[in-house]
Amino acid sequence: MDFDLTDEQELIRSSARDFTDREVIERARENARNHHFDLELVRKVAKQGYLGAIVPQEYGGAGLDYISYGLIVEEIGRGDSALRTVISVQTSLVCSAILKWGSEEQKRHYLPKLCSGEWLGCFGLTEPESGSDAASLRTRATRTDSGWVLNGSKMWISMGNHAKVALIFAQTDPEKGHRGLACFLVDTDQDGFQPQEIEHKMGLHASDTAAISLDEVKVGPDEMLGQIGDGFKVAMSALDSGRYSVAAGCVGICQGCVEESVRYSQERVQFGRPIASFQLIQAMIADMVLKTDASRLLVWRAGFLKDKGRPNTTETSIAKLHATEAAQWCANTAIQVHGGAGYVDDHPVERYLRDVRVTTLYEGTSQIQRLIIGRAKTGINAFVPQ
Ligand code: COS
To answer: Ligand 1: which atom is nearest the Cα of residue 123?
Structure first.
């Protein structure tokens, strides 16, 4: 077993760290305060090659391995989870689905534009009435002479207001359940595609989150990923990548909590000495370090399996479950270390706590991850309808 990163991976990590320190951190607080989806910063991220890190170079990506991708996402996640969400959605949910399921023509058409940031993409799986039970989605795809027409609605869609292309999952034949689902590549630039910004979120204020109404949305006959009936598998395989990315971003939050807590506790003096010298403060920091390291190693294991092309759904769920729960704990504890100073946005820990809350919800709740792991270990499927 080799825990050393390669020289190239070390370089990728340090340049992502520099980029985050230089470009991301200073804008994160203002963007959150102003609820500003920072397209200029997204362009800089694209220029770094971070929107298509795992996409082969022949399709305009950086052609990196999953471990390197995880290192980039960790660093950006340390800086700003709203920006990290852009990378996760664009790279893992949209690009990886096109890469795995798209025809050669679709790959050549979409991937270069997505990797360069010329286009943003979104992933339209969740609906107002279907979240964890993704297969029960109701958006309907009806065949026409010239392709397909989609009607329905989507909910909690990151980048739904800015995306040029949307992966829309729709039911072609309700009798077939999950085997009737298909994934369509939808041009959002048409009247029937109506996104609406979701306001008053607890966190991720600098992230674009939309509710989307689909009213007679037209799709060409060749704008489907895979075949009719492949939709559920397209979604699940994309989530294998998306959950990895969320987990890596949460390792970044954990790491940020450690660094901020160490810095603050060394500077803050109470009872005539830095609070870092108190055992109870050190215990909190030690537990943060423990959870950070464990999460990172689980992410690296999942990345290792992905790079080897081996099955990794369970290991990815383990990494996602552990890292998101750990990041939530670390953010809460980091505020405890900061005391009152952590309750306002002068320090990033306040934003960490608000932004991390969604990570145990989106891309599969912690409960769903536990049931995926439980099913793999017991062989018993808890999802069978009663
Ligand atoms: N990759 C490819 N195919 C997969 C897969 C994966 N990771 N996981 C499952 N599949 C396939 C299965 O092989 C099966 O294929 P067949 O139809 O040929 O038998 C099919 O998909 C159905 O799989 P499964 O039986 O696991 O489906 P379930 O209905 O039991 O899945 C869960 C239930 C809860 C696992 C699923 O609905 C889920 O992950 N829900 C959470 C959704 C989510 O994360 N939403 C958040 C979106 S925010 S972007």
So the answer is: 49
